[in-house]
Design goal:
Blueprint (H helix, E strand, L loop, with lengths): L5 E12 L2 E12 L3 E5 L6 H8 L7 E6 L2 E2 L4 H5 L2 E4 L11 H11 L4 H14 L15 H12 L6 E5 L7 H16 L3 E5 L3 H7 L2 E6 L2 E6 L1 H7 L7 H17 L1
Parallel strand pairs: 3-8, 3-9, 6-7, 7-8
Antiparallel strand pairs: 1-2, 1-4, 4-5, 9-10
Bound molecules: adenosine-5'-triphosphate.
Adenosine-5'-triphosphate (ATP) binds next to strand 2 and helix 1.
Length: about 250
């Protein structure tokens, strides 16, 4: 397994909404096997970057490579490598989980056997197998989140992109989700996630990028971030607050 393989390469990404610069020239590379956490305060630009990564919106300028495929010149090859779970997944509520998987598998051209076996494995993993024939509309937020995560993995993507994966999950489900991400990494996959739950990021991620006002202000392992914040041994919450507040202070001065 080539752990140095670059699977996500953002180059000089800028995004403007009218005159507002939401992303101000981000270069960021994520490697195979990384569990990468993309953190930042509200409005920092995380969702904008995730939408760019998943091809939902285009940057004003800059380029994105997914496993070496240019997202704009070779979008089919690039996008098929990604499984995406948005923070508020849109699910067809009048379908059962199995019907939804069938629909999603069709979109990605996954053969029926793979959809069925992967779907069953995921629903069992997330304790939803007994509910497989119920309509999604009857599910709680956390249960819908689990269906969305399951559907995003059916086509066996190399890169799993998750916006706020842990909101609404109870403690047992949170553990299942964390184990699921770790299991993906052990299979040589890559996870790119955003979260405001810093304890989850600290526990899970082997590298973290902190974005503020559309710029990356810190990037590295937990110990590298602790060093940058001059807070050795402190938890990610203290490190995050120090780094993002320092940036704010510099702007005020
Ligand atoms: P949060 O943690 O609150 O979800 P975020 O880091 O995901 O925040 P984004 O949603 O990427 O932040 O937004 C970054 C900035 O871009 C914000 O100031 C937001 O208001 C602005 N923005 C995002 N989408 C649009 C849009 N469609 N039109 C105008 N401005 C937008």
């Amino acid at each position: 397994m080539n752990q140095n393989e670059k699977v996500i390469e953002f180059s000089a990404i800028k995004k403007q909404y009218g005159n507002f610069h939401a992303v101000k020239g981000i270069d960021l590379t994520v490697h195979k096997g990384e569990l990468f956490g993309f953190l930042g305060p509200n409005g920092a630009g995380k969702t904008t970057m995730i939408r760019i990564l998943t091809g939902i919106i285009k940057p004003t300028s800059g380029n994105v490579l997914i496993k070496g495929y240019d997202l704009y010149k070779d979008p089919d090859n690039a996008k098929s490598r990604i499984g995406f779970v948005p923070d508020r997944p849109y699910l067809y509520e009048k379908l059962t989980p199995l019907e939804y998987f069938d629909f999603m598998g069709g979109l990605y051209n996954v053969n029926k056997n793979q959809v069925e076996s992967k779907g069953e494995e995921m629903l069992k993993l997330f304790d939803l197998w007994d509910r497989r024939n119920e309509l999604i509309e009857s599910f709680s937020h956390g249960m819908k989140q689990k269906v969305a995560m399951s559907a995003a993995i059916l086509h066996d993507p190399d890169i799993f992109v998750v916006d706020e994966p842990t909101v609404g999950l109870d403690p047992k489900s949170l553990k299942l989700a964390k184990d699921f991400f770790r299991n993906l990494i052990s299979q040589g996959k890559t996870v790119f996630l955003t979260t405001h739950t810093l304890s989850v990021a600290q526990d899970l991620c082997n590298r973290i990028g902190i974005i503020r006002n559309g710029e990356i202000v810190a990037l590295g392992s937990m110990s590298e971030l602790q060093k940058k914040a001059s807070l050795p041994g402190n938890d990610l919450e203290s490190v995050f607050l120090k780094i993002t507040e320092e940036e704010e202070q510099e702007k005020i001065i």
